[in-house]
Amino acid sequence: MATTEPTQAQTAWHAQDTDAVVSALASDRLAGLTVGEADERRRRHGPNEIASEPAPSTWAIALQQLRDLMNLMLVAVAVVSVVIGEVPTAIIVAALVVLNVVLGTQQELKARASVDALAKMQTPQVRVTRDGALEQFAATELVPGDIVHLEAGDVVPADGRLLTSATLEAQEAALTGESAPVPKDPQTLDTAEVPLGDRSNMVFQNTSVTRGTATMVVTETGMHTQMGQIASMLSAVAPSKSPLQRELNSLTKVLGIIAWTAVALIVVLGVIRGQSLTTVLLLGISMGVSAIPTGLPTFVQAMLAFGARQLAEAKAVVKNLTDVETLGATSAINSDKTGTLTMNQMTARSLYFHCRWYTVDGEGYSKTGRITHVAGEAVPDFTLLAYGLCLDSDATVSDTGEVVGDPTEAALVVLAAKVGVDAPLTRQTYPRVAEVPFDSAYKFMATFHHLQVDGSTRFVELVKGGPDVVLARCATAYRPGRQVAALDEVREELTAANRTMSEKGLRVLAFAARRLDGQEVEAAADPMSFVEDLTFVGMVGIIDPLRPEAIDAVRTAHTAGIDVRMITGDHAITASAIGAELGLGPGAIGGPELQAMTDEDLAAALPNLHVFGRVTPQDKLRLADIMQKGGAVVAMTGDAVNDAAALKKADIGVAMGSGSEVTKQAGKMILTDDNFGTLITAIRLGRNIYEKIVSYIRYQMSKLFSLVLLFLVASIFDINDGVALTPLMVLFQHFFITLFPVAVIMLDPPAPDLMNKPPRDPQMPIANRRAFVQWLAYGVLQFAVTLAAMLLAPGDMSTTEASVPMTTAFVVLSFGSILAGLVMRRDPESGLTAPILGALKILSVPVVVTVFAVEIGFLQDLLMTTSLTGAQWLACLGWSLIIPIVVEVEKAIRRRLHSAPPTPMTTPAAVDPQRAR
C-alpha cells in the first residue's frame, strides 16, 4: 500500500468526496489499513492523544522547593554554622532543609501521578477495520487512514470524514457549544469555507454519537485534531499564583526583615563590646535560628498533602497542593449545569394527555415510578401515547439504567416502561413500514406501523416533535374519553399547557397520530406528504433533574458567603426555572444580551445576575476575568473543550472526570463524580486547611517573637553573656517540643460554624496588622514569663555554661509552648473545649521529652542543661500556666465584644473576616 497520505491538519476534507478522501489517505474503505502500515504511521504521527503541557522534572520541582525564601534563609544559617565550627547545628539545619525539599517534591509528584492515573483510566476503546477484519483496541492506537465504526453511545476517537451513516446525530457541545445533537451525513459540501459547526460530513474527537451508526476514515489524530489545536492554544492563558503562595511569600519577607534586623543588631552589639568573631557569629546564629520558623514549609506541605488526600477520598483530585488552600478562599462559583448541578439523566416529569394533566415520578433512567392523576378521574388508556414513546425513538435503556442513544429519547423509553410498555419488544412486534427521520430543518420525526388499535390492526402514522411544529400539522386533538375535537377548539388550552411546562424549565415534546388504513404503498413512497391532518395526542415535559444534594450545596454556599452562578447552553428561560429551583438568586440573562453589555455595565449588574443561558466560550472567559478584577476568587466548573480557557483563567478551574481530556488539563481540580456537592465539600476542606495554617502561624509566630525578644534583651542587657539559650536548645525546641502542639492543631476537628463565615479576603495577607499585633502580644507574654522565670531563678548567669537560670528558661519556654499550643489551636473559640482528651494525650509526650532533656546526662551535655529540684520544677510549671490563662481571658473578652450588637456605624457586613483570627 502507498504511504503518501498528507499530514497537514488544515486539509478541507469536508469539501472532497469520500473516494477522494480515502484515496488521499492511502486507505481502503473495505479492508482498512494493514497492521504494518498502521505501525509505520504511528511511528510518524505518534499516539492519538492530546499532549499535555510538559511536566517539570523531579529535579526541577526540587529546585523550585529549594528556592523558597524560607529554605534559603536556613541554608544561610547552615553555612555560617559550618564556618564557626557549630557542626551539629549545621547538620540539623541542613537536614531540615532536605526534609522540606523532599517532602514538597514528593507531594507534588503524587498529585501529578493521581491526575495521570485518572487520564489512563478513561481511555476509550474503538472498533476499527484492519486487514479486512474488525478489531477493538484503545483509541490512542488510531492513525490517519484507519476505518472506524461508530454507533450511538460512542465517543468519537479522532477527527474523521464520514463514509457511510444511518440517521447519525452527534453531540458536539464539547467542541462548538451547540447544546442540541447535530445531524450528520457523508454528503460532500460545496465549499471549503464552512464553519466548524456546519461541517455535517465530519465528526470530531471527543464529541459523542447520540443516534444512528456510521463508518468514518480518520483524517487527523492527536494534536492535529480540532481539540488538539485548542489544547495548543491554552498556553496563552498564564496561570496565576494561589492566594496562599502570595500570602506565604509576604509573610516570609516580613520574617526575613525581622530575623536579619535582629541578627544585625546583635552582631553590632557584640562588636561594640569587643567580643570575638566566633562569639558574635554564634549569637547571630542563635538569633537566626530563633527568628526563622524552621517548621513552616514542612507544616504547610504536610497540611496541604493531608488536605489533598482528604479531597481524593471525597472524589476530587487536585494537581498542585496550593490549590487545596485556594479552594478555601473561593468567593464565587460559576457552575456548569448538566451533570454538575443536575444528574445528566433526562427524566419525564409532566404529562399532558388528552387535555388532562398527569405527574410522573421516579428518578433518572430507573424504570420504576408511577403516573398519578387527579382523584375521581378514570384511569386513561395510554396505548396510543405508548406507541409514540417507543416507536418514534431509537434509544435503548437497559434495566440497570445504561443508555445508548439520545438522552431525551431515553427518557421517553423510561416513561413507556412506567406505563407498562416494553420498548424493545414493542419495536420488534411493530416494525417500521416507512419513516421520516428527525431533521433539524423540520424538527419532527414520523414513523409508520401496523398497530393494534381498538381491538383491530390499523395502519397508523406516529409523529413526535416540538409542540409548535406538531400543532401546526394537526387538524384535530383528543379530549378526555378519546373524544376528538377540532384543533381550534382546544388550541388555546394546548398552547397554555406548553407554556406552563416551558416556564418550569421542562423540555416539551408533542405527540400526534393519524390513521392511514390502506395507504401503505403511498406512505412508503412519500412519507413526508402524510405528515399533516394529524390528531394531537399529548405532550411530555422532560427535565434533567437536579442532583438531590445540589440544593443543599447551594444553600451551604450562600450561608458561607459564596455567590453561585449557573452558566449553561440552555435557553435563558429554561435555565432561569432551574436556577429558581436551586435558589441561586435573582437575574437571568441570555448570551446575546450579555455580549451587548460593556465590561463596566456587566460588572455593575453581576450582583443581580445568577443565571446565564446560551453563552459562548468567550462569554465564560470574560465573566471569570471581570469577577476576578472585582476581587473575587473564582471557581469554575466545566466538562467541555469550550470551557477549557475559562477553567484555566479561573482561580480554581474544576474539570469533570467525565469531561474532555483538554478540560482536565486546563483545570486545577478534577471532580471524579461530576458532583457540585463535592465542590462545596472541597471548599469546606480548603477553609479548614487555611484555618489550621493560620492557627499554626499564630502559634509559631508568637513563639518566634518571644525568642527574638529574649535574645535581644539578653544581648542588650548582657544577660548570661548575651546568650539566653544555646542554638541547639532552640533547635531542640523546634524539633522535639513544638512538633506536638503543631500535631494537635493539625488533628483538631473543623469548627462547627466554619461555613457560616464569609470568605476571607485574598488581598488581606496572613501578616495583616490585626494578626501581627496578636502575634506580638502573645509573643511578649511568653517572653515576659520566660525572662521573669530566668531572672528570678537561683544561680549564676555570668557564663554560658550549664546553669539553673538558662535551664529554667528552657523548661518554662517548653511548658509554655505546650500549653500555648493547646489554647491557640482555636481562635476566638476556647481551646479548652471538647474534644480535648486526645490533645492532652499528644501533649503529654513533649512534657516527658522536656524532663528527659533536663535530667538525662547525655542530653544535659548536648543542650547545656542542668538538673532541677522538685520545687524548681513546680516553679517552672507555675510560670508556664500564666500563658494559657492570659490567652483564654483575652479570647473570652474578644468573644464578648464580637457578640455585642453592632453600632449604627458598624454593620455585620462590614466586619473584617480576619477578626475571628
TrEMBL record:
It is found in: Cell membrane. The chain crosses the membrane at residues 72-103, 254-272, 278-300, 704-725, 731-751, 772-792, 804-824, 836-859, 871-889. GO terms for molecular function: ATP binding; ATP hydrolysis activity; metal ion binding; P-type sodium:potassium-exchanging transporter activity. SMART domains: Cation_ATPase_N (SM00831). Residues 12-86 form the Cation-transporting P-type ATPase N-terminal domain. It is a multi-pass membrane protein. GO terms for cellular component: plasma membrane. Keywords: ATP-binding, Cell membrane, Membrane, Metal-binding, Nucleotide-binding, Translocase, Transmembrane, Transmembrane helix. Residues 898-917 are annotated as: Disordered. Pfam families: Cation_ATPase, Cation_ATPase_C, Cation_ATPase_N, E1-E2_ATPase, Hydrolase_3. It catalyses: ATP + H2O = ADP + phosphate + H(+). The keyword Methyltransferase does not apply. It comes from the Bacteria. One of its GO terms (biological process) is intracellular sodium ion homeostasis. Belongs to the cation transport ATPase (P-type) (TC 3.A.3) family. Type IIA subfamily. NCBIfam families: ATPase_P-type. This is Putative calcium-transporting ATPase.
